[in-house]
Amino acid sequence: MLNLKMISSVQSTFFLLVLSYCVLLSLIDGYSLKKCTVKGSLNSTTMKVLCYKRQLRAVPESVPSRARVLDISYNKISVIKKNDLGDLTNLHNLNLSNNMIEELEDGAFRGLAALQELNLAHNRLITISGGFFQNLFNLTLLRLNENHISNISSSAFLPLISLVMLNLSGNHLQYIHKAQPVFQMPRIQELHIGKNGFSSFETCQVSNTSLQLQVLDLSHNPVQLFKITADIFPHLETLDLAFINVGVKWDVQDKNYFRNVDRLNLSGIEMAPEKMKIMLQTFNSTLSNLRLYYLGEQKAKSLAKEACLINSLTTLRLQSNNINSISENELKNCSNLKVLDLAENDLTKITVLAFKSMSKLNTLSLSHNKLSNVPTAIRNLSTLEVLDLSYNSITTLTCSDFTNLTQLLMVHIYRNPLSSVEHCAFQDLHNLKTLIIDSTALYTLKGYFMSGLQNVTYLSSSRNKLSMINRDDFKCLQSLTHLHLPDNQIKSIDAGAFQGLQKLDLLNLQSNKITQTSISASVFSGLPNLKQLMLNNNCISYSSQDSLSEPPFKHLKSLYIIAIYSQGNNGMKNILSNFLEGLTSLKIFWAGNLNLNSLHPDTFTYTPELSILDLSKNYLTTISSDIFMPLKKLSSLTMIQSGIQSLDFLIEANLKEIQLLSIRKNSIAVINETLIDTVSKLSLLDIQGNEFSCDCDNAWFIDWAVNNNNTQVLKVDEFKCNYPPYFRGNRLLDLDKDSCVVDVGLLCFVCTTSFVLLTLLSSFLYHFLKWQVVYTYYLFLAFLYDKKQQKKQTLQSFQYDAFISYNTHDELWVMKKLLPKLEGEQGWRLCLHHRDFQPGKPIMDNIVDGIYSSRKTICVISHHYLESEWCSREIQVASFRLFDEKKDVLILVFLEEIPPHQLSPYYRMRSIIKKRTYLTWPKPEEDTDVFWQNLEVALEAKDTSYEERPILSQLGRI
Ligand SMILES: *[C@@H]1O[C@H](CO)[C@@H](O)[C@H](O)[C@H]1NC(C)=O
Ligand SMILES: *[C@@H]1O[C@H](CO)[C@@H](O)[C@H](O)[C@H]1NC(C)=O
Ligand SMILES: *[C@@H]1O[C@H](CO)[C@@H](O)[C@H](O)[C@H]1NC(C)=O
Ligand SMILES: *[C@@H]1O[C@H](CO)[C@@H](O)[C@H](O)[C@H]1NC(C)=O
Q1: Best CA proximity match to 423, nearest among 401, 391, 440
Q2: Is the C-beta atom of 184 inside 6 A of ligand 3?
Q3: Residue 1 has pLDDT above 70, yes or no
C-alpha cells in the first residue's frame, strides 16, 4: 500500500513538472513564434509579426503583445474564436485576408483597442453581426471586400466611430438599404460598395442627412435607377460608376448635388450616348479627372469630345478602347488637358495636328499601341514633361522625333524593335532626366548620347543587343548617376569607357558576357563616386590562384556594394588574394554561386569596412577562421548551401558584430552554446534545412531557440532531424530534452530516495547477512591492501615463509609438532599470531600483514577452526590473495577428518579443497614422515602459478 502511494506520488510530481513546463512554454513571449517571422526587435513598438502563406488553420498562438502589425493572410483559417487574438494592445494593423473565414465570434477583436487597419477581404463571411467590431473605436480602415456578405446588423458598425475607409465590394448585399448602416458611420469618407448586385441606388434608402463621404464606389452593380433626391453628398469628390451596365435611369434632380465631384469613372458603362451627355452635364463645373476605359472606339471618342467641353477637365484616360487612329478634330476641344492617357489601344496613326490644341499637356502616354514611329503630333509639345512610347513598333529614332521637347523630363522607349538612333535624335532634350531604352534591337550606343542629354541622371539600356562599350559612349552624360546596362551581350569594355562620369553612383553590368580580361583597373577609372557595381552573372573566371598584377577595382575608393555572384562557364573558381584591393569603403559583397572551394586568407584584408557578406552556393566545406579575421565589422553573413558542417570557424573568427546569420541548407548537426555566446548581437538566425542531430547535444540550442528574446530563429518549428536514423524526419522541437536536463529538484529527489533505500538495504543486509557483510568488508580491505602491496611484493623477498592460521584449541599441536619440525628441523621462518602480531594494531590488519608478508599460508583446520570466525577470515584473505595473485599460497592441513557437510558453510573452502594443496595429519597410529615431507614440498614450491600445479591428490582422503 505504502509503496503504491509512493509510486503514484512520484508519478504525479513528474506529471506536474512536465505540465508546468508546457504551460511556461506557451506563455513565453519569445521570438521563435511558430510559423511566423518577426521583424523588428522584441521591445520595439514597430514589431511586425508575419505569418502569411503558412498553411495555418488557426490564428498562431502567443503572438508577442508588442506586435504592431500582424499578417496572417493567405492561410486556411476558417474560424476566429473569441479568444484567438487575445489582448494585443499595441496592434495597429491586422491582416486576415485570403483565408476561409466563415465564422467570426462576437468580440473576437475586443482586445485590439488600438487597431487602426483591419483586412478581412477574400474570406467567406456571410453575416456581419452586432458584436463583430466591439471595442474597435480607433479603427480607420476596414476591408471586407470579396466575401459572401448578405446581411449587416444595424448595430455592427456602431463602435467604428473612427472608421474612414470601408471596402464592401464583391459581396451579396443586393439591396442598397442593406448597406444603410455603413452610411451612418460618422467619420466615413471612402466607401466601396461595388459588385454587390444593387439594381438601384436611391439616396432616400441610405441617408437623409448630409454625409462626410468623399469617395463612393458603386462600380460593377447592375444599377437601373440612379436617383439622387437629397443633398447628402456635399463633400463627394470621387465617384466610380464603372461597369454600371444595365441602361441606367439617371435622375439627379439638382446638378449642385455633385458640386465637388472632380474624379469620375465611367469605364465600361452601358448607356445611350445622349443619356451620357446629360449625365456629364451633372459634373460640368468641377470635373477634372475622367476615366473612360472599355467603351469602344466610337463611344469613347464621342464621350471624350463631350467631356473636353468641361473646362475644368485636366486628366482624360482613354485606355483599352481599341482606338485605331486619332484625327485632327477628335480631341480639339481638349485644350485644357494636362494628362492624356491613350495606352492599351490599337493606335497606328495619329494625325500631325491631333494634339495641336493641347498647349498645357504635361503627360502623354501612348504605350501599348501599334505605332511604327514617333508620331509627329508630339513635336513642339513644348510643355510635355513625360512621354511614354513603350510597347510600340518603333524601329528608328530620327533627329526630328523629339524636336523642341525642351521641357521633357522623362521618356520611355522600352519594348520597341528599335534598331537605329540618329545621332542628333536627343539633341533638344536639354532637360531630360530619365531615358529608358530597354528591350530594343540596339547593338551599339556609339554616338547616340553625344548631344542634348547633359541633364540625364538615369539611363537604362538593358535587354538590348549591345556587345561592347566604347570609350566615348557616355562621355557627354556628365550628370549621370545611374547607368543600367544589364542583360546585353557586352564582352569588351574600352579602357576609360566610363571616364568622366564624376557623379555616377550605380553601374549595373549584370548578365553580360564580361570576362576577367574585360575588367581592369583602367575600365573602372574615373568613377570617383561609384558606390554600387553589379558584375554578377557574367563570365569572370580565374583558373590559377596567383594574385593579380593589377587589381581591377583599385580606383573605386567609394564603392559600397559589389555583386559578382553567379559567373558562368564553370564559375569564377577563385577569388584572387588581391581581387578586392582598393575597396576600402566596401560594405556589401555578394559572392555566391562562384564555384569556389576555398578562399585565400588575404581575400578580405583590403575591405575592413565589410559588413554584409554573401558566400552562398560555394563549396566551402573546409573554410577556416583566418579568412574572417579581418572582418571586424561584419554584421551579416550568408552562406546558404555551402557544404558547411560546423560553425566552429565562427567561434575562432570571433565575429562580435554579427546580427544576421543565414546558414540555410548546409550539413550542420549541432549548434552549441559557445557559438551563440560568441555572436552576442545576433538578432536573426536562419539555419533551416540543416542536418540536425536530435540528441542531447542540441538540447541547449532548442531551449535557447524557443525562449531567448534577442535572436529570432527562423522557422525553428520546421527543423527536421537527420540523426539518429530512427528519428530522421521528426521535428527537432519534438526531442525530449527533459531527459537531457539535470533538474536540481529531481536530482535531490533521486539522491534522497537512493539514500533512504540504501540505508534500508544496509540495515536489512546487516540484520540477515551480517557475517557476509563483515567478510566482504574485510575482503575489500584486503583488496585495497593487496593493490598497495602488489608492486612492492614482486620485488621484495618475503619476511616469512608461511603464515600459520590456527585456532587456539589447536595451539598445542602447532607449538609442539609444527613449530619444532618446520622452524627447528626444516628451517622455515613462520609467522604465528601470538608471537609475531604487533600489539596494538587491529587484529585484521595483523592478519592481512601476516598473510601478505608470508610466501604461504598454512591453515590448520579442525572443527574448532571452522567454528572460529577469525580463522575463516584468514582463509578468506589468503584465498583472495590466491585468486588475485594467481599464486598457490594456501596450504590446508586437516588435523581431523571433517565431513563435507561441515565444510559447506565455508563456501569458499570447499572449492579450495577440491583444487588446492591439502594435507591430512595422519591418525595417531600412522607414520608422520610422509606428512612432513609433503609439507616441506608444498612450502618449497615457489611462485608457481596454480594452473600449472598438479593437485597433490595422493595426499588427501576426503
Ligand atoms: C530594445 O532593446 C535593445 C537592447 O536589448 C536596446 O538597445 C533598444 O534601445 C531597445 N529599443 C526600444 C525601443 O526600447
Ligand atoms: C486611439 O486614438 C487616440 C488618438 O489617436 C489615442 O489617443 C488613443 O490612445 C487610442 N486608443 C488606443 C486604445 O490606442
Ligand atoms: C457647362 O456649363 C457652362 C456654363 O456654366 C456651359 O457654357 C457649357 O456649355 C457647359 N458644358 C457642357 C458640356 O454642358
Ligand atoms: C522649335 O521652336 C522654335 C521656337 O519655339 C521654332 O522657331 C522652331 O521652328 C521649332 N522647330 C521646329 C522644328 O518646329
Answers
A1: 401
A2: no
A3: no
